[in-house]
Amino acid sequence: MDALPRLTPEKLAAMPNGTRIKFGGQIVKLSGRGTFVNAAGCTETMIEYTDSRGNSVSFEEKIFLQTATEYLNSVRCDFCLRLRDKHDCEVKVIETYMSRSNGNFCKDRGCAQLYFIRHPNQKPQIGRRKW
Predict the structure, then answer these.
(1) Do residues 21 and 70 touch, judged by C-beta distance below 8 A?
(2) Which of the pair, 97 or 15, is modelled with greater confidence?
(3) How far apart are the first and last CA of the chain?
(4) pTM, two decimal places
(5) In this structure, are residues 91 and 75 in contact, taking their beta carbons and an 8 Å threshold?
(6) CA 18 to CA 23: how far, in whole Å?
């Protein structure tokens, strides 16, 4: 029930092209990495990948490392923003006056209770949304 470790620049540099990585909510394939000098004269490292739709995309390494993980079945807690395995999280339905959505929360830390204390206008409901 520990938080999953973040992806580091060293780990990312050691990964071969074609490695599958979870970036945000989608699974992407790593295509490569390169550097370029921007208009301000600063050198930036860019990560190139192929997204789930087959489009070739590039992103700055610093931003990519904040949201990417090598664990494909991980989810991010909606309260503490830690990466966890799906089995270490509980799903709660977050209901507002306009919408309903599923939220993932850490089981062992009590993040769901803390989230609903911080956001009293959102009503917690147990389970997933049923259509």
Answers:
(1) yes
(2) 15
(3) 31
(4) 0.71
(5) no
(6) 14
* Contact assessment for residue 129 and residue 100, using Cβ atoms and an 8 Å cutoff: yes
Residue 67, both tokens? 């949201």
Q: Provide the 3-class DSSP secondary structure of residue 9.
A: helix
- Nearest one of 43, 44, 53, 56 to 17, comparing CA atoms: 56
Give the integer Cα–Cα distance in Å for 2 and 73.
14
E strand or H helix at 93: strand 89-95
Give the pLDDT confidence of 43-98 residue by residue, as tens digits.
Answer: 889 999 999 899 999 889 998 888 888 888 888 899 998 889 888 899 988 887 78
* Res. 126: pLDDT tops 70: no
Which amino acid type is present at position 128?
R
